[in-house]
Specification:
The complex is a heterodimer. Chain A is of the alpha/beta class. Helices cover 36% and strands 22% of the residues of chain A. The termini of chain A are far apart. Chain B folds into 2 domains: 125 residues; 210 residues, MetI-like fold. Chain B has 15 helices and no strands. The longest helix of chain B is centred in the N-terminal third of the chain and has 49 residues. The chains are: A alpha/beta, B mainly alpha. The structure holds adenosine-5'-triphosphate and magnesium ion (MG). The site of adenosine-5'-triphosphate (ATP) has 12 residues of chain A, from helix 2.
Chain lengths: 259, 357
């Protein structure tokens, strides 16, 4: 029971100053509980992407600490850092698939951290990984497209390939940086549904940046909001009323919905 | 107060220094420009063209004097619209509605180009008299008659020499490839700027590539023919070295233009840096690399022909021998052979490159 209540991730007083002097995160602290679908909102430039990239250390935090599954991972390097990253899946706004490679190969790259360097270069992956890749491709509804070139798929399909790739890592948490920002409304919902499925059926904790509040209300179990690099809201999506909306997005903001 | 005082130079410093640098380089440009105009006008336009001197005296005082004059004129005109340096460095507040083509500094630029053209005509001794002289016409007639009556008797050695040239170029390209492939990564700024050590390697690689590339393959061939003896091997080494630096440069530019997304995604999966490069970088660059490499082979075949002229072996050397003996019919056949090779290489390489786009 204690593991249920212990947070999977805790961020404490995180500060990020970029080399050019931009202070992108200012003393951000919050916990992510196991199994939740936590959404980060905030204006463009408020530091959402920076926050996600500090967690898997694509960017180096300046001060503060990050605890993942109870271990301090703020300063680890080399092989332990790669092992950590393999436990954290990530999907991106622009999908970031490998061009000219098939869907299957793209999904298999999720296993790179546990595949030998030489065998991965020669494209030799274990049979069980291939089976797993195929079943994940089925999970995201792309059966039959295994050998299609990934860059020839539609945006929504590419994002589903990216989800399968991230799941290939057996992640305990999935970071999603505006996963639907370059998709149309219908496709956005379809991709969000897959994330929800991953969250509810596979029990993967999700930390997701989103732009549209309508999506937030529909999918988030909890919300945090950033403004100018500071955490200014933490609570349930239903509590974001008109007042909070204007605090987060500014006085003149008007809510736009996505159906 | 204290924080303001320390903050000010920090924020003002870089832009102020950058502006200073721009002004200084603009003035230097003007100075050299005026010195050039002065020197060319005096030494070529005045002494050679107007006074018609055969061998005017030269003393080092002249360029020094020209620089001094240039410094004064440049200073005098720096704050008028006649400063080309300020225009190049973007230091003018220009009227958007007025065409830049009619600005005084543009007209001055035209004048310099015109001056250079006139000087060039005299320096390269363009002489229509010799071009159409009787002896000249006879020589032209002799060589063209021979070229159009090629001696097919030497077709066999010509073909063998041509094959030697093509293979030499091919081996040079293939040997250069792995070196260029590796150096291309070291010379790519986006991969090498994450730590001071990497950045040092980047600069060292760039320096090496720039030096080797700026020396012509012909010169390398001469150097290597002293080293390993005259023949195809010297030519091959020369082409190889030049190919390494040219290809590495093209490769690194390709790497600098790739999208960061796949790299970021591969890093996020916990992949080893080598795997990140293999999956995140390589798929984005293979086709352009292949295209560059085929094009390089094409270039190498032409260069191999030229290098043959200085004893690098192959068809160029054969051409040199027959030319030395004034056997113009044989030279004619070789010229045709070279034209055919170059055409075939050019055609097939562009076809292949089109098909792998
Ligand atoms: N690599 C970088 N170097 C310097 N500054 C950066 C870098 N990346 C982001 N920033 C700056 O940090 C701040 C936060 O950026 P970030 O990308 O985290 O915001 P965001 O909330 O994700 O915005 P968006 O919704 O536009 O994606 C911005 O002011 C941005 O300009
Ligand atoms: Mg962002």
């Amino acid at each position: 029971m204690t593991t249920q209540t212990q947070p999977i991730l805790s961020v404490e007083k995180l500060n990020k100053v970029y080399p050019n002097g931009t202070h992108a995160l200012k003393g951000v602290s919050f916990d992510v509980k196991k199994g939740e679908f936590l959404v980060v909102i905030g204006l463009s430039g408020s530091g959402k992407s920076t926050l996600l990239r500090c967690i898997n250390r694509l960017h180096e935090p300046t001060t503060g600490s990050i605890l993942f599954e109870g271990k301090d991972i703020t300063n680890i390097k080399g092989s332990p850092l790669r092992t950590l990253r393999s436990r954290i899946g990530m999907i991106f706004q622009h999908f970031n698939l490998i061009p000219r490679k098939t869907v299957l190969t793209n999904v298999l790259t999720g296993t790179l951290s546990r595949t030998g360097i030489v065998s991965s270069i020669f494209g030799i992956f274990p049979e069980e990984d291939k089976k797993k890749a195929l079943s994940l491709i089925e999970l995201v509804g792309l059966t039959g497209k295994e050998n299609r070139r990934a860059d020839n798929l539609s945006g929504g399909q590419q994002q589903r390939v990216a989800i399968a790739r991230a799941l290939m890592q057996d992640p305990s948490i999935l970071l999603a940086d505006e996963p639907v920002a370059s998709l149309d409304p219908a496709t956005s919902h379809s991709v969000m549904q897959y994330l929800k499925k991953v969250n509810e059926e596979l029990g993967v904790t999700i930390l997701c940046n989103l732009h549209f509040l309508s999506l937030v209300r529909q999918y988030a179990t909890r919300v945090i909001a950033l403004k100018d690099g500071k955490l200014i809201y933490e609570g349930s999506p239903s509590e974001i009323d008109e007042n909070w909306f204007q605090t987060i997005y500014g006085e003149d903001a008007v809510e736009v919905t996505i159906d | 107060m204290e924080t303001q005082e320390t903050a000010l130079p920090h924020t003002m410093g870089p832009t102020g220094i950058a502006q200073m640098k721009r002004v200084i380089s603009a003035y230097t440009m003007d100075l050299l420009h005026w010195a050039y105009i002065g020197l060319v006008s005096y030494k070529i336009i005045y002494q050679k063209v107007i006074m018609d001197m055969r061998d005017p005296d030269f003393s080092w005082n002249e360029p020094v004097f020209a620089l001094a004059i240039g410094a004064i004129i440049a200073l005098g005109l720096f704050f008028t619209k006649f400063s080309v340096g300020r225009a190049v460095k973007g230091l003018y507040d220009l009227d958007e509605n007025k065409s830049i083509m009619k600005e005084p500094f543009t007209l001055l630029g035209y004048f310099t180009i015109f001056l250079t053209f006139i000087a060039g005509l005299f320096i390269s001794q363009v002489s229509l008299r010799e071009f159409f002289s009787q002896a000249g016409m006879l020589g032209a007639k002799r060589i063209f008659t021979a070229l159009f009556n090629p001696n097919f008797g030497i077709i066999e050695p010509a073909i063998f020499a041509a094959i030697e040239t093509i293979y030499m170029a091919f081996i040079a390209t293939v040997t250069a490839l792995p070196f260029a492939f590796l150096l291309g990564f070291f010379a790519a700024r986006n991969l090498m700027s994450s730590s001071p050590i990497l950045f040092f390697i980047y600069n060292a690689t760039r320096f090496f590539l720039n030096i080797t590339r700026s020396i012509e393959p012909l010169v390398w061939a001469i150097i290597f023919s002293v080293w390993v003896g005259i023949g195809p091997f010297a030519g091959m080494l020369a082409l190889c070295l030049h190919s390494v630096s040219s290809l590495a440069k093209l490769y690194s530019e390709q790497i600098e233009n790739i999208s960061e997304g796949p790299i970021e995604a591969m890093t996020a999966t916990g992949a080893h840096p080598i795997q990140v490069i293999w999956f995140g970088v390589v798929p984005q660059i293979v086709l352009p690399y292949l295209s560059f490499t085929i094009y390089r082979w094409d270039i190498n075949v032409r260069m191999a022909t030229v290098i043959g002229l200085v004893g690098g072996g192959g068809i160029g050397t054969l051409l040199m021998q027959y030319q030395g003996l004034a056997k113009w019919n044989e030279v004619g056949l070789l010229a045709i052979t070279i034209a055919v090779i170059v055409w075939v290489m050019d055609y097939s390489s562009s076809k292949i490159r089109e098909s792998i786009k």
